[in-house]
Amino acid sequence: MKKQLPHILSLSTVAKSRLFEIQAVDLKFSNGIDRTYERFRPFNRDSVMVIAIDGEDLLLVREYAVGTEQYELGFVKGGMDTGETPEQSANRELQEEIGLGAKKWTFLRTMKINPQIMGHKMHILLGEDLYPNQLEGDEPEPLEIVHYPLSQLDALLMSDEFNEARNLTALYTLRDYLKKRQ
Q: Which regions span the lipid bilayer (predicted)?
């Protein structure tokens, strides 16, 4: 049985910054209960995460994260530009962040980021058969490129410096994909 979606009674902006808008959403559920939820304003811009493999190594980046106020290790990622396919966005982000493109792309999965408060989707792609090509990116400083042996995926999964949920999801997805490919 498909549940009836709550009816949106009203929307209002609670807070707004240069990057975010938070909305209050007044809802009426099918059982008659009214409730106000808060969410980030929905936007139609998906993002990509790139798992780049160079030979027997994963290519990771170490990048400053203001949320934790430290440098974090993770995969190349970024927003999709209007009109781009996930593969085009992934290739552009890879070239901007680490100066490499990929000739071979494999779509691994799409994940939703915290759907209770956001409508955002991120596409995880595997990039292989890499070639040098640097594009200008929007990072304020060059990102450190970290080569990590594919043979040590389990160690990376347990590493204290690789612990962001999206990166972990991507790495588990890669591990399952590589097992099936063998």
A: none
* Secondary structure of the chain as H, E, C letters: CCCCCCEEEEEEEEEECCCCEEEEEEEECCCCCEEEEEEECCCCCCEEEEEEEECCEEEEEEEEECCCCEEEEECEEEECCCCCCHHHHHHHHHHHHHCEEEEEEEEEEEEECCCCCCCCEEEEEEEEEEEECCCCCCCCCCCEEEEEEHHHHHHHHHCCCCCCHHHHHHHHHHHHHHHHHC
- Taking the C-alpha atoms of residue 86 and residue 125, their distance in angstroms, rounded to an integer, is 8
Q: Does residue 170 register a pLDDT over 90? A: yes
List pLDDT tens digits, range 81-103: 999 999 999 999 999 999 999 99
Give the chain's length. 182
Question: How far from 75 is each of 17, 63, 80, 152, CA to CA, in Å?
Answer: 27, 10, 16, 16
What is the residue whose two structure tokens read 């400053």? 64
Q: Does 162 or 2 have the greater pLDDT score?
A: 162
